[in-house]
């Protein structure tokens, strides 16, 4: 069972030392173990750590990339939050 995270919880994981979580289409991924392998460089992942990176992800990747890496990097999903 995957864990559910609030946007605030994801934001707390904004560095490699904290797990470097990013959000892509409502799913949460832990990028700390992948940051040095990322073909686009670590700097790009570090810049979006703790944030929703959906827009940036889809600009440079297709669905096959997500399918390939999701099993090892997905740590949970984003909780639905009330919009006030």
UniProtKB/TrEMBL annotation:
Annotated Cytochrome b5 heme-binding domain residues: 2-79
Keywords: Heme, Iron, Metal-binding
One cellular component term from this protein's GO annotations in UniProt: membrane
Top-level taxon: Eukaryota
Membrane spanning residue stretches: none
A GO molecular-function annotation: heme binding
Family matches, as Gene3D superfamilies: Cytochrome b5-like heme/steroid binding domain
Similarity comment: family membership: Belongs to the cytochrome b5 family.
PANTHER family: CYTOCHROME B5 (PTHR19359), CYTOCHROME B5 A (PTHR19359:SF14)
Name of this protein: Cytochrome b5-like heme/steroid binding domain-containing protein
The species this protein was found in: Clohesyomyces aquaticus
């Amino acid at each position: 069972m995957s864990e559910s995270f609030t946007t605030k919880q994801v934001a707390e994981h904004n560095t490699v030392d904290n797990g470097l979580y990013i959000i892509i289409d409502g799913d949460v991924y832990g990028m700390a173990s992948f940051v040095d392998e990322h073909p686009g460089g670590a700097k790009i992942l570090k810049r979006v750590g703790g944030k929703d990176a959906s827009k940036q992800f889809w600009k440079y990747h297709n669905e096959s990339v997500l399918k390939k890496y999701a099993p090892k990097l997905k740590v949970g999903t984003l909780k639905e939050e009330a919009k006030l």
